[in-house]
Amino acid sequence: MNVLIVESSVDLGELWQRHLQRQRSNVDLVYSQDAAIEALCHKAYDIIVLDLVLNTGSALAVADFASYRHPDARVIFVTNTTFFSDGSIFAHSPNACAFLQSSTPPEDLAAMVEHYAIPR
Predict the structure, then answer these.
(1) For a tag site, which of 41, 53, 62, 112 has the least CB within 10 Å?
(2) At CB < 8 A and 24+ separation, what contacts does 23-28 make?
(3) Share of the chain above pLDDT 90, in %
(4) Which CATH number fits domain 2-116: 3.30.499.10, 3.40.50.2300, 3.40.50.720, 3.40.50.960?
(5) Which residues on adjacent β-strands are paired with residue 100?
């Protein structure tokens, strides 16, 4: 399974990456919109773990590009804010499959990735 993590926090992104790699996922970690778009241009991903509030760029732009470039890739949005807590993210991003708090235990995030990913 190929997973792309787009997370501005290096420590949090690496924590998630390690948990997913233990499940034998191939995981790429990037920290910005530009790096995510670059990754999506060169590789197909089954699932994208995407911080809704990136320090550099727009998460919705990443999700939109992913839906165009890799329509089967699903997106798990994560955030440490209450923005979109009403569930409206699913109306804005057709490839969204889950919406979690950044504080979700990494093993729970890994279980969600495994559940929602469609391996190639």
Answers:
(1) 41
(2) 23/110, 23/113, 23/114, 25/1, 25/113, 25/117, 26/1, 26/2, 27/3, 28/2, 28/3, 28/4
(3) 72
(4) 3.40.50.2300
(5) 78
- Tokens representing 101 are 């708090």
How far is it, in rounded angstroms, from Cα 49 to Cα 84? 16
Show Cβ contacts of residue 33 under 8 Å, excluding neighbours closer than 6 positions. Answer: 6, 54, 56, 57, 58, 59, 61, 62
Contact 32, 8 (CB under 8 A): yes
| pLDDT at position 40 | 97
End-to-end CA distance of the chain: 7
